[in-house]
Automatic annotation (TrEMBL):
Annotated TM spans: 7-27
BP GO annotations: Gram-negative-bacterium-type cell wall biogenesis; peptidoglycan metabolic process
Superkingdom to which the source organism belongs: Bacteria
GO cellular component: plasma membrane
Domain DUF218: start-end pairs: 39-169
UniProt name for this protein: DUF218 domain-containing protein
Organism the protein comes from: Caldanaerobacter subterraneus subsp. tengcongensis (strain DSM 15242 / JCM 11007 / NBRC 100824 / MB4)
Length: 192
């Protein structure tokens, strides 16, 4: 076997090893992390169809509502700006959802300007600091939690995590897990 071919084999093996390690981190973190009682519950933004939460976003909102009703957090921070095709911001759609479910308006805090996971967490941290909130539960899809944990740690949010898995959209969930491998690698390499 030529030296070049050996190098190619080693590089392919290294690439698959990195992918396997990242996939393991994403899956194990998403399915083992448990929420801890905190000052706030942060719902990471997700698509809105017009002015209604998408199925993934609705599941995140329902998880946050469950935690709120069980006394895991006094405040809910909803994060997410207004993307293409959305009539209102993700945060505003989430607020309307919670108000319909009987959550007091004073306990709902909004970040209407974020457009990425990093911004979701950065602006949520600013809201936490403004309201003297020290700890949070971060709610998202299970595949998203590991990357959220890396970012939260880097920007200084003391957080636990609670994830959802939307069985009715298992194909989208699998796609999310696969895409998240690259997103997590990018996050590690980017350094924030």
């Amino acid at each position: 076997m030529s030296r070049f071919l050996k190098l190619v084999v080693v590089l392919i093996f290294a690439l698959f090893s990195i992918i396997a390690i990242l996939a393991y981190q994403i899956i194990s973190f998403g399915f083992t992390e448990k929420p801890k009682k905190s000052d706030a519950i942060i719902v990471l933004g997700c698509a809105v169809y017009g002015d209604a939460p998408s199925p993934f976003f609705k599941e995140r909102l329902e998880e946050a509502l469950k935690l709120y009703k069980e006394g895991y957090g006094r405040y809910i921070i909803i994060s997410g700006g207004k993307g293409p095709g959305e009539s209102i911001s993700e945060a505003e759609a989430g607020k309307r959802y919670f108000l319909e479910k009987g959550v007091a308006s004073k306990n709902i805090l909004l970040d209407n300007k974020s457009f990425s996971t990093y911004e979701n967490l950065l602006f949520s941290k600013e809201i936490m600091e403004k309201n003297s909130l020290k700890t949070a539960i971060i709610v998202s899809n299970k595949f998203h939690l590991k990357r959220a944990s890396v970012i939260a740690k880097r920007i200084g949010i003391d957080a636990s995590f609670s994830g959802v898995f939307v069985k009715e959209y298992v194909g989208d969930e699998v796609y999310g897990f696969l895409r998240e491998v690259l997103a997590l690698l990018y996050t590690y390499l980017r350094g924030w």
